[in-house]
């Protein structure tokens, strides 16, 4: 029984988590995501769940690790500087194969930066972020509806792969208020034989990431690498008016949503411009980008940073066509018109008709 | 007569049991175990009361004291 | 002819400790403290309901010794991990086992806040006044004048402050229900340590609140002493600065 509600993007994340059965939330306040802990603080006690405002982002990722080790669905959220603090914990989750959902409503950096929407954490999210050879599944919503849907999906993927999963949003997607269609989550909970539930009728189980015996860690890392390769089947992306595109714009998150209007503006002018919007930025939609690079005359990446996802696009395009870039480091949100103008610069530069 | 069995392979020759024994029934020996430690030996000279202080203070649980069962 | 008297074994390894040799140095008190904790797990019948948060230090290999469910925690974070364990499974028995680097250096925020929230967990704090596993560097509990690999001229109060008395500090928090400092350098102290652990376990099994037991411990290798000398230092120099005793017992009559 669907219901439409007008809610903030941040609230949609909290509601999606709860609908997916998350009953443990540990977090710490930081702009621009405070609606998430605030919503959880109100909702969890009513559901018999646990909300705990931890003493820091470091403490909260570790509380997540403990609760998730028992097999529970657990979430934490923060924004860029706080996500930096969580990196060690995320690495431990990956190494110990403990699932968990970590929400990053990115703000501007580096350092204290600002509270503007930003896409400066792309590298941090997709290149590990923490130490060691691991990967985190990263979902990049662009609307409050996607916040809701992808958060629910995040819990399933985290458990399916016994891995941390990150929701990579930003201040715009967190603060925006828009209609969201609520859904009923009906999936059966997965069996978790690895979970720590007390050694009843069995020996004690261990969840750890330390492997000191000769060759043990080599094998462990190859096992993880194999797992990450198998995550490639979770690739998700969206194309918009892309069928005959001469110039394919590639963007994620809030830039992805702004560009839909830019594409409409350009199509209005008779320019065959389309949009490819990755929804998983890890695993990256390499095949879709490669295909776009073969079919279009040029790709153009636009991001709220000085150039991060553009590297993945270039790698995936494998030189099948030129890849241009327009970056807008955080501090001002670009309008559809501004981005359409930037696309036209490339259109002309590449001699497209 | 009470006695103390030494699990020689677990003994690290730390000497804490020697300190602990109120009757001086333990002493580090001259034989080495496979780990290279000169393990402790129990001198049964009738003074042992089976108090188990040695075992209680052995960090490696290498001692098993026995006491006479009262009938 | 009188029958030979039957001999009864009066000491054995606790059931919840695996029958494997310890990697700990000769004379290290970790072996004793592990055993005392395992004895209480057995006495209270908790082997099947214990969830432990191991930490980083010499005792990182705790999971090789305790036959219970264990999760490894990042350095300093065991109290936060234990918070997650206990909140997710309130009927389980949750303990952490941490050294002075883990708890009193990098983990200071986590232990203070777990205690302050009154988390219903039991924290075992092994204080040997040095960072053992990493080769003997200065710790927050290193005594003034003590030579370590990062205080080669002896700890100077002017440079590094004086050692932190964790038991006293945590006792000032409303959330701390039971806090005691014990040692295992002789039988008398060992027996008091057993009693303190029993009380700490009672606090958790009865749901009375946060319980904390600080064990003064020896580190012969990094103190550059024989096991006997190190053992003596625990009872004298260490206990002088870190007095033994029960500092808080809110349910005491």
Tell me what the structure shows.
The complex is a heterotrimer of chains A (353), B (71) and C (253). Chain A is α/β, with parallel strands linked by helices. Chain A folds into two domains: 3-233, Rossmann fold (3-Layer(aba) Sandwich), CATH 3.40.50; 239-349, Rossmann fold (3-Layer(aba) Sandwich). Chain A is built from twelve helices and 15 strands. Chain A has helices at 9-19, 35-47, 57-69, 80-96, 122-126, 144-161, 171-175, 216-230, 253-268, 286-295, 309-317, 336-349; strands at residues 3-8, 24-27, 50-53, 74-78, 100-106, 137-139, 164-170, 177-182, 206-207, 237-240, 247-250, 273-278, 280-282, 298-303, 323-327. In chain A, helix 10 (286-295) crosses helix 11 (309-317). The mean pLDDT of chain A is 97. Chain B has a single domain (3-66), classed as Alpha-Beta Plaits, CATH 3.30.70. Helix content of chain B is 14%, strand content 31%. In chain B, a hairpin with a 5-residue loop joins strand 2 (26-32) and strand 3. By secondary structure, chain C is α/β, with parallel strands linked by helices. Chain C has one domain (30-156, 163-249): 3-Layer(aba) Sandwich (Rossmann fold). Chain C has a seven-stranded mixed beta sheet, sandwiched between helices. The longest helix of chain C has 19 residues, at 187-205. Classes of the chains: A alpha/beta (353), B alpha+beta (71), C alpha/beta (253). Chains A and C meet through helix 3, helix 4 and strand 9 of A and strand 2, strand 3, helix 2 and helix 4 of C. Strand 4 (63-68) of chain B pairs antiparallel with strand 1 (7-9) of chain C, so a sheet runs across the interface.
Q: What's the total count of β strands of chain A?
A: 15
What is the count of distinct domains of chain C? 1
CATH fold category name of the largest domain in chain A? Rossmann fold
Distance between the ends of chain A: 48 Å
Name the CATH architecture of the largest domain in chain A. Answer: 3-Layer(aba) Sandwich
Rounded to an integer, what's the Rg of chain A over CA atoms?
21 Å
């Amino acid at each position: 029984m669907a219901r439409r509600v007008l809610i903030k993007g941040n609230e949609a994340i909290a509601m999606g988590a709860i609908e997916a059965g998350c009953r443990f939330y540990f977090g710490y306040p930081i702009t621009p995501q405070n609606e998430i802990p605030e919503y959880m603080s109100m909702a969890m006690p009513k559901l018999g769940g646990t909300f705990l405002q931890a003493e820091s982002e470091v403490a909260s990722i570790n509380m997540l690790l403990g609760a998730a080790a028992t097999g529970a669905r657990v979430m934490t959220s923060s924004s860029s500087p706080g996500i930096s603090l969580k990196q060690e914990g995320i690495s431990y989750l990956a190494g110990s194969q403990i699932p968990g959902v970590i929400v990053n409503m990115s703000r501007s950096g580096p350092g204290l930066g600002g509270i503007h929407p930003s896409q400066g954490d792309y590298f941090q999210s997709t290149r590990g972020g923490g130490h060691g050879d691991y990967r985190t599944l990263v979902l990049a919503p662009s609307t409050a509806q996607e916040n809701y849907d992808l958060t629910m999906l995040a819990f399933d993927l985290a458990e399916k792969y016994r891995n941390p999963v990150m929701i990579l949003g930003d201040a715009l997607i967190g603060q925006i208020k828009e209609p969201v269609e609520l859904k009923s989550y009906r999936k059966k909970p997965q069996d978790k034989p690895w979970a720590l539930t007390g050694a009843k009728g069995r020996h004690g189980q261990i969840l750890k990431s330390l492997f000191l015996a000769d060759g043990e860690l080599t094998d462990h890392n190859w096992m993880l690498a194999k797992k990450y390769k198998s995550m490639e089947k979770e690739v998700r992306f969206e194309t918009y008016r892309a069928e005959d595109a001469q110039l394919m714009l590639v963007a994620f998150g809030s830039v992805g949503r702004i560009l839909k209007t830019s594409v409409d503006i350009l199509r209005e002018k008779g320019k065959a411009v389309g949009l490819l919007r990755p929804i998983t930025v890890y695993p990256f939609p390499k095949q879709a980008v490669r295909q776009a690079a073969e079919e279009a005359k040029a790709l153009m990446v636009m991001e709220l940073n000085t150039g991060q996802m553009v590297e993945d696009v270039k790698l995936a395009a494998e030189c099948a066509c030129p890849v241009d870039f327009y970056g807008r480091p955080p501090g001002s949100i670009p309008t559809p018109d501004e981005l359409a103008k930037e696309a036209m610069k490339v259109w002309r530069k590449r001699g497209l008709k | 007569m009470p006695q103390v069995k030494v699990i020689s392979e677990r003994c690290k020759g730390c000497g804490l049991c020697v300190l602990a024994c109120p009757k001086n029934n333990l002493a580090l020996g001259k034989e080495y175990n496979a780990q290279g430690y000169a393990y402790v030996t129990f001198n049964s000279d009738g003074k042992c009361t089976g108090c188990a202080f040695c075992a209680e203070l052995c960090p490696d649980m290498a001692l098993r004291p026995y006491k006479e069962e009262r009938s | 002819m009188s029958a030979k008297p039957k001999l009864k074994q009066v000491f054995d390894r606790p059931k919840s400790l695996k029958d494997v040799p310890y990697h700990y140095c000769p004379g290290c008190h970790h072996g004793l403290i592990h055993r005392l904790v395992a004895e209480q797990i057995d006495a209270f019948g908790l082997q099947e309901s214990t969830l432990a948060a191991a930490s980083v230090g010499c005792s990182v290999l705790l999971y090789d010794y305790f036959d219970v469910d264990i999760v490894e925690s990042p350095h300093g974070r065991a109290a936060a991990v234990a918070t997650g364990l206990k909140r997710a499974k309130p009927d389980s028995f949750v303990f952490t086992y941490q050294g002075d680097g883990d708890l009193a250096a990098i983990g200071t925020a986590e232990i203070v806040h777990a205690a302050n929230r009154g988390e219903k967990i039991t924290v075992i704090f092994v204080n040997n006044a040095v960072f053992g596993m990493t080769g003997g560097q200065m710790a927050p509990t290193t005594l003034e004048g003590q030579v370590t690999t990062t205080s080669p001229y002896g700890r100077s109060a002017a440079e590094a402050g004086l050692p932190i008395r964790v038991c006293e500090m945590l006792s000032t928090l409303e959330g701390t229900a039971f806090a005691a400092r014990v040692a295992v350098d002789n039988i008398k102290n060992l027996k008091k340590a057993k009693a303190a652990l029993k009380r700490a376990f009672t606090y958790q099994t009865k749901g009375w609140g946060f319980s904390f037991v600080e064990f003064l411990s020896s580190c012969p290798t990094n103190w550059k002493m024989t096991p006997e000398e190190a053992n003596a230092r625990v009872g004298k120099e260490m206990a002088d600065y870190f007095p033994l005793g029960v500092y808080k017992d809110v349910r005491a009559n």
